[in-house]
Amino acid sequence: MTAAALPAPAHVSNPARVLGAAAVLGAAVLLVARSAAVRAAEASLLAWVAGPVTGGTSRAIGDIAAIGGGTGQSIGVQITFMCSTVVLAVPLLVLGAVTLGLARFPVRAVLGGLGEALGIVLVANMVRYAGVLVAYQVWGDEGFEISHHLVGAVFVVAAFVVAMMRFAIRVGRPR
Amino acid sequence: MSTLETTVNVVGFVLLVMFLAYVTLILVPFLGRRRARRGLAHLFEWHMFVPCLDEELVIDETLTRFTRDFPSVHVWVIDDASDDATPQIVSRWASAHPRVHLVERRRPDARQGKGAALNAAYHALHAWRATAGDELSGVSDDRVVVGVIDADGELVPGALEHMSGKDVFLDPEVGAAQASVAMNNTGRKMHAGTGVRAWLRNARARWLLRSQDIEFRTTIAAMQTLRLRTASAGMGGNGQFTRLVALDAIGETYGEPWHGALLEDYELGIHTMLAGYRTRYVHDAVVRQEALPAMCPYLRQRTRWTQGGMQCAAYAPKIVASPGFTNAGVVESLYFLSIPWLGLLGVVIWPVIAAFVVTGAVATHTTATLLAAAWWLVPLTMLTGIGPFVLWAFVYRSRDDPDSSIGRAVVRGFGYWLYSYTTYPVLVRAAGRVLRGHSGWEKTARVGAGVQAAVLDQARAVKPAGATARSPALPGAGGADADVIELDAWRAA
Known about the structure:
- By secondary structure, chain A is mainly alpha-helical.
- Helix content of chain A is about 70%, strand content about 10%.
- The radius of gyration of chain A is 20 Å and the shape is elongated.
- By secondary structure, chain B is an alpha/beta fold.
- Chain B has a single domain, classed as Spore Coat Polysaccharide Biosynthesis Protein SpsA, Chain A (Alpha-Beta Complex), CATH 3.90.550.
- At the A-B interface, helix 3 and helix 4 of A face helix 1, helix 7, helix 11 and helix 13 of B.
């Protein structure tokens, strides 16, 4: 009869971890509080990414990404709060903060997993935005409806699922 | 959109994603599962504990099966002061078969829950082993394994060979293993009679029976298969196997191997891991049990399990701190223990979201514009909300019922989705019981009894405790934690 010889994890989180967890939680709060600025930044990024693909000039006006300037088919898409990466990032940050506060899990694993998850949702949301813009440009309102409400929704749900799984897998790795 | 509406939508979205992430995490390893290698059962000494309370309808057949299919196994039937002929039936068996043992419990020690009954058998086993002499198999102490099976349980031949495998009890680090569970009464006609009423009753029974089988053969089996990778396999009430020395270690630390949580079996698994052992899930070792064909006893059973799950959440700090759990095991265990609470959140969130959607739609749309604006809700709901359940039905079809048609799998999938909504009243009731501090439960009656669940009446004067005739002296279970037995609130409604 033997018990598995595993290193004993710390029972109490040290102050640095608690501070780190508070900082991550603070980042989540900041994202919500400054969501308008975040959405404006997303619109700018989207305009920059989508411009070469959609033709014409592209720019951001606040939280609206406008493309196709000068082509006679200029359109804009507003990034609302519910569509924003904030909605995806905040739950991940909260999860990250809670996990970071538990000394059980290595800091590197938590932060690495959090970084990877945040990267996945950011890229996925950008891809979704770009897809919606292109669909709107090509197929008009119908294209917007299908790409925004259905295809885009499924895509971002799937990406969020992958992000959560990757976080759980990285945090769950052996020390 | 108001702040409240935004918050509720975001929480609902996160709950949905967590659900889908978990389904994906359990489905993938389950689909890629390889059959376990069998070992040599004779390298171990096997003891099956069968707790019984009024099991005269089933215990004779159970003992017939055991003595026929597993002649080398010792069967310990614990009679928990039955009011029927259970002790007489088992006595006859014990007189004729040296490997059938009766552990008789008398009031006031009896009827203190399944855990107390199992502990009685555990002490009886130790007392027997101390004096059995030639009856012992000669294996070393760490090769003695105790299984627990319901009175109506059917251990499928070959199960012990799977339990003896290299990855299971042949590995000295493995302290406990759980067999997979299948229902033995799906497809049975439960109600006699003809006509529409009888047809509806039977259809409802068939739906409930089949859904339970799908649940155990797919979703629960998949959860357990993931736990092979996270080294956190959970123990269930039927088909749990524990090394006797592991039970001893748990007893030394916690007083007794089994305790009073309503989910005492899952608790045993936690204790096994906290004691430094590994747990395993053995899908190819199968135990069959009776599914419940009627909604009231089913809801009562699930409320008991859910309440037990809520109680086990108290172990979270110990799990996090324990070196007996892997990091992945901690993540999985914490998520599993949070499921009832997340579900409770969903009980509040989903109706609120639905209310927001409906009131918003009604306020701003006619029927025609509503259909035009919200058409996407239907495919999205089907894909993310119903799709996973239909997927499980197809997994069930491929693994357990390959002769059934695709159409039947689709119907079963929708049925399984509807079945998932039984969780909501269960969660509410379980939470209510936790808040009120109610923990007593009546035992679910056998389907074969043809009656609704029996109501135990501890308000009647109990008989004085008497000496047990066949079993060694048993420690008193004590009445300090005697629970109030609750009457069947579902029937009273």
